Structures are given as C-alpha cells and as structure tokens.
Amino acid sequence: MSLGQQIAWDDTVLPFQLDASDIRGRVARLDGVLEQVLSQHDYPPLIEGLVAEMALLTALIGQTVKLRWKLSLQVRGSGAVRLIATDYYGPTKDGQPARIRAYASYDAEKLDETADPFSQIGQGYFAILIDQGKGMTPYQGITPIAGGSLAACAQTYFAQSEQLPTRFALTYGQSQLPGQDTHWRAGGVMLQHMPEASPHVTGEGGSGEDGLLEAEDILNDDEGENWTRANTLLDTVEDIELIGPSIAPTDLLVRLFHDEQPRVFDPQPVKFGCSCSADKVKQSLSIYSAKDIATMTTPEGTVTADCQFCGAHYSFDPSVLGFEAKDA
Questions:
Q1: What radius of gyration, in Å, describes the C-alpha atoms of the chain?
Q2: ∠ CA 206-210-213, rounded to 5°
Q3: Average pLDDT, the chain
C-alpha cells in the first residue's frame, strides 16, 4: 500500500454489511484525530489508554447518527477515574467530516498506574446520549459498568438497552513508522446484528454479569448461528490488521468475511473538533446574578473559563455576564 493510500484510510469510519449473515458493521481507523484528542492534556499513560478506547468506540458508534446530530458517550465511576466523556458531532452536510472530542477527569492521588486500567473506574455507569437538535428531546440510555473493558460496557449497553447483539474488536497504542515520530493510533471493528427479528428475551434476566443481557440472550437459533460464525471469524483478526496503516479496511473485510458477502458503503471522515465558544460560555453563566458573578471574579477583575475538551481559555468583563448583564 502506498503512503497516499495509508493516509486515505486514516481518520475514517467505513460502514459495511455482511449480506449472508444479516449483520452490519463498521471499521474505524484513528490517527491524527486521536493524537489531537490526547495532545490537549498531559494524561498519565493509563488515562490515555482509556480515552483512546473511548474515542474509538465513539467513532464506531457515532457513524450511525444523522447529519447535525450529536452523540455523547460517558463513563462515570467511583474509583480514581471519575469521568470519561466523548462527543461525536455528525457532519453538517453529506461528504463533510464528523468531529470528535474527548476528556477525562481523575484523582491523581488515587490512581494506581500498575493496576488494570479498567479497574480504576470502579462502580458506576456507561451512558449513551443522542441530541437531535433544537426542539427535540435528547435520548439517554444507561447501563452499569461491567465486563472488564469499556468495549464490553458498550456491548452490554446495546444488549441491555437496545436489545441489539453487538461486538467490538479494538486495539490502540503508540506506534512509529520508519522516519516518523511516535504517535497514537487506534483501529477497530464493530459488528451488530440487524434488528429485523423480535428479541428473544425470557424476562428472567441475562447471562451476563449481575444478570445483564448478552448477545446470545436475544437471538434465536438461526440468528445465533450467524452471529457465532461472524464472531468466530472476527476472533482471527490481528492487532496489526486493526490498527493499520498497511492493510486497507476493505482488504481486511475480504480477509475476515469473504464467505459472508461483505458489502461496503461510503466511508465517513472524522477529525478533532470542539464546539466551545465565548457565546456558549456566556450563555452558561446567564443564570447567575451579578452577586454570583462577583464571587467568580479574579483579583485581576475578570471572569475566566477553560474548555475541558480543547483547553481554550476565555476571559470576560464581569459586567457582561449573568442575567443582569449590560449589553456587551
């Protein structure tokens, strides 16, 4: 594969369908996007890995949202890792890139960098939120932290909340091509059973952790056979095939699923992007009185705010903030 072909597949999500199995999926490759997401903060390696996994999940899941919609993933935990939040902004027009941003909050004093990263989250929940725009009620689905990884949490979410059998195969880490600096790359495949059939749920709980539903709990025999076959094929994938860049996603799909009749659709480019602005900060402060704003004012006589996602710094004259503000 030429360098141009490598670049063409970086920072893209390729949707596909396995016609012989009634299974849809996506292949994602993140390169510059992930590097920009992580370069906004000086995270410890353990946190970088969790953010990389969450960003990759966001790219794979977010590709299904419609133009101008926003999809958010959140993990909140009781452990050293308090929050991991990501946003996926659907493109404003067909053919334009989607945008991704990510942020993590953690207690550095409680963080054990020798432990399994996922264990540092503790108890909590995994949530998916979809904002369809003004005038529409946002959708939110929540499932408990379970399964040993963020990918497993997402799989449990789809089985439990959407009753859609879902599987992720992910890899991420720092890599280096000859003559280039070390930087972050990530790649993954998402499989999801098509939702035509009615879920086969008994109402007696699932086979997962704490009785949560798993894929096999919501498939009949024929569907289960197709699902098992596709997952067995995905089990043969190697990290280098997922992360690239020397293997094109189309070649990977042929290698893995040739007999399942893979059919690809238009790839979706993604880039790093943040939606913060001075106007949005002012809007968020518009609920406060002048007295409240005074408590936020620095000794230098300004009110400041920093974006947790991109690090942008905003500084305001207190007189233009709050519901008693003068016209700026």
A1: 22
A2: 25
A3: 88
pLDDT of residue 277: 87
- Mean pLDDT for each 10-residue chunk of the chain (328 residues)? 56 95 94 92 94 97 89 97 96 92 96 95 96 85 94 94 93 78 90 68 58 65 86 95 88 95 95 89 89 91 88 88 76
3-class SS string, the chain: CCHHHHHHHCCEEEEEEECCCCEEEEEEEECHHHHHHHHCCCCCHHHHHHHHHHHHHHHHHHCCCCCCCEEEEEEEECCCEEEEEEEEECCCCCCCCEEEEEEEEECCCCCCCCCCHHHHCCCEEEEEEEECCCCCCCEEEEEECCCCCHHHHHHHHHHHHHCCCEEEEEEEEEECCCCCCCEEEEEEEEEEECCCCCCCCCCCCCCCHHHCCCHHHHCCHHHHHHHHHHHHHHCCCCHHHHHCCCCCHHHHHHHHHHHHCEEECCCEEEEECCCCCHHHHHHHCCCCCHHHHHHHCCCCCCEEEECCCCCCEEEECHHHCCCCCCCC
Angle at CA 42, nearest 5°, toward 37 and 47? Answer: 75
Could you give the CA distance from residue 135 to residue 69 in angstroms, rounded to a whole number? 13
CA angle 156, 34, 271 (to 5 degrees): 100
pLDDT tens for each residue of 176-216: 666 777 789 999 999 999 875 444 544 455 666 766 666 66
Q: 304: which 2 tokens?
A: 């400041």
- Only one residue has tokens 């999940």, namely 57
- Using one digit for the tens of pLDDT, what is the confidence trace for 239-288? 999 987 788 999 999 999 999 999 999 999 999 998 888 898 888 888 89
**CA angle centred on 79, ends 75 and 81, rounded to 5°:** 50
